[in-house]
Prior knowledge:
Layout: H1 2-16, H2 19-23, H3 25-30, H4 36-63, H5 68-75, H6 78-111, H7 115-129, H8 134-142, H9 145-160, H10 167-175, H11 184-208, H12 213-240, H13 242-245, H14 251-259, H15 261-291, H16 295-312, H17 317-368, H18 376-388, H19 393-409
Keywords: Membrane, Transmembrane, Transmembrane helix
InterPro entries: YkvI-like
Transmembrane segments: 40-62, 82-103, 115-134, 141-161, 188-210, 222-242, 262-286, 298-317, 323-344
Amino acid sequence: MFKKIMSVALAYVGIIVGAGLSSGQDLMQYFISFGKWGLIGVIVLGILNAIFGRIIVTLGSYYRSNDHSEVLSKISHPITNWILDISLVISCFVIGFVMIAGAGSNLNQQFGLPIWIGALICALLVISVSFLDFEKITNIIGIFTPIVIVMIVIIAGHTLLGQNFDLNQLHHSAVAMESPMPNIWMSVINYFALCVMTGVSMAFVLGGSIIRIGVAEKGGTIGGSIVGFIIALASFVLFTRVDQLSGVDIPMLVLANEVHPWFAFLYAIVVFGLIFNTAFSLYYALAKRLAGESEPRFKLYLIISVTIGFALSFLGFRELVGLMYPALGYIGLVMLLVLSSAWIREKNNVQEEKQLRRRMIKLISKKHKKDQIFTIADKKEYQNLSEESNVQTETIKIDIHDFVQQELSSI
């Protein structure tokens, strides 16, 4: 159980932690530019990430969603649903090509490769990995997350230990930077709404792959908390070196080079992996939404959208972050309101469904264990529970049956 929870948590972090956050560019523009107040802002942001990480992944599990529309159609008014659906489709596409641009900037800054080569490598990886089994995809999404956490901790230790900082001087240097937001509180809300718009489509799909609601709750909470930790630590490190970092595309990579050139080499690869994670998550969710259940159309839409995204990535990473992210963040405010109201409204139903599925798993497990008897009464109770579930009766029965078989085969 713990292994599955952590797999979900790391996959969620992989979805959220993309080019801007792991590179430091988002944090420089949204938080460091407000000086000391920016550091308070990232703490608030971390708390919001933990709360909404739980909400989003849990709702995905509760509704067993294959794409974001399956959740939004149930938790919002038809007009609001239509607006958010269109907004998420646009967000997946736009942030996707910002990620591809970030991949080009990352390899260009560290290795001197032409920007288009890094962007092309990322685009080709997104297309090829999208055709794998979803279980394998989940593992791929989470693979770079623990590595980047360790590396950011190492960068923080190397940058901070034994150093003295003039916080007032750093504050004045930081506020001299240009920010896309008018104040820190609007910056916190806008950036968090942007994070939700970036990750909610794939996070719903991630949650939909989890039959145990308890696993979704814990995985989403831990994943959101890890995101908060990464943001807070990286922000403080960037703040202490704001004088040297204000004009570069990948600020964290500059700090990684100060640790050791080989460490920077590895960090550039990991950042590229995280950029790929987010780009893949966005384009995968976009193609799923457009194609529905049709696998041939899914492949076609994914190839077309990634190809167009690659072409648009030539607009430049830092410029795209400053231009596109604030606009998408404002749209995301509507999403936050919808998710909050849905959670308040459905919280009790989610807990009832959680207990219902737990009981169904326990009952059907008896059927597959030689030392237990699956009685007529058990069969009747199992049928009644499946009819009470918020998921279609036959669908939940098949899902529970498949889940129990997988669990028993792994013992």
